Amino acid sequence: MGRCVYCGERRGFWGKTCGDCKKLLARVEELRGRVGYGEFLDGLAATGVPKEKILVFLKADPEGKGSIQDQVTAEMASELMSVMGLKGNQTPQEVKRIRETTTKESK
Ligand SMILES: [Zn+2]
Fold first, then answer.
1. How far does residue 54's CA lie from ligand 1's centre (Å)?
2. What average pLDDT does the chain have?
3. pLDDT of residue 17
4. Residue 99 pLDDT > 60, yes or no?
5. What pLDDT score does 94 carry?
6. 44 with 27: CB under 8 angstroms?
7. How far is the CA of 25 from the centre of ligand 1 (A)?
8. Cβ(24)–Cβ(9) under 8 Å?
9. Can you say how many angstroms the Cα of residue 11 is from the centroid of all Cα atoms in its chain?
10. Residue 100 CA, ligand 1 centroid: distance in Å
11. Do 62 and 36 form a contact (C-beta atoms < 8 A)?
């Protein structure tokens, strides 16, 4: 037995994620790149997983590639920029950096 790499809750014998996070991951793959952030969150809520758990899931960064939230935000930002005819590609790291800078400044 171990803990889910996303939410830290106890999981079953198989895999690195618990059933809820597995459900959320599948939904993320369905939704990413197709909907806006509000619809994205609604889609995750529709899985029936409690909202607090969804928030923990979105902020987890088990692979060090940026959290799901930062990855999806980066994809949406890149898409928006290309729609507006701007060049550039937002990376999860960049989104994280911007968010951390903003958080520091607002203190
Ligand atoms: Zn989990």
1. 9
2. 87
3. 92
4. yes
5. 81
6. yes
7. 10
8. no
9. 20
10. 25
11. no
Q: DSSP for 10-74, please give it.
A: B--SSSSS-HHHHHHHHHHHHHTTTS-HHHHHHHHHTTT--HHHHHHHHH--TTSS--HHHHHHH
- Cα–Cα distance for residue pair 26/12, rounded to 1 Å: 18
The pLDDT score that the predictor gives to residue 107 is 52
CA distance 17 to 69: 17
CA–CA gap between residue 67 and residue 5 (Å, rounded): 12
Ligand 1 centroid–CA 40 distance in Å is 18
* pLDDT tens digits, one per residue of 22-55: 999 999 999 988 888 899 999 999 999 999 999 9
Cα 82 to the center of its chain, rounded Å: 21
